[in-house]
Amino acid sequence: MAESLIPGSEDWGDNQVKTSGWADSMADAVYFHSEQEVSPIMERNKADRKAFAVNKNSGSGRYGEMTMVARIPNIVVDQLMREGLWWDKKAMKKWLNDPNNKGWRTADAWL
Question: What value does the mean pLDDT take over residues 46-54?
Fold first, then answer.
């Protein structure tokens, strides 16, 4: 029989990672499930990419010394850490430049 490790259902906000866990005494195992609503982050990133493109093409054509290139939700960062990509600069650059990960980019500049 599975028993809850996290009692109740709490609302931790839209951008917070929500984790639930349960123990299965028959299988002698503990299971965890994490989720996060990422659509608000992706919408904000889309708006930032558009603003970046407008600023980049407005005459100066410069990115500046400090340019935010991505906003990545905690749930994705956790996955990147488990896969060993988070601390590997070359792997992260490749991951961020992958078209499948465009939703996390805040600028269309290539790294």
Answer: 87
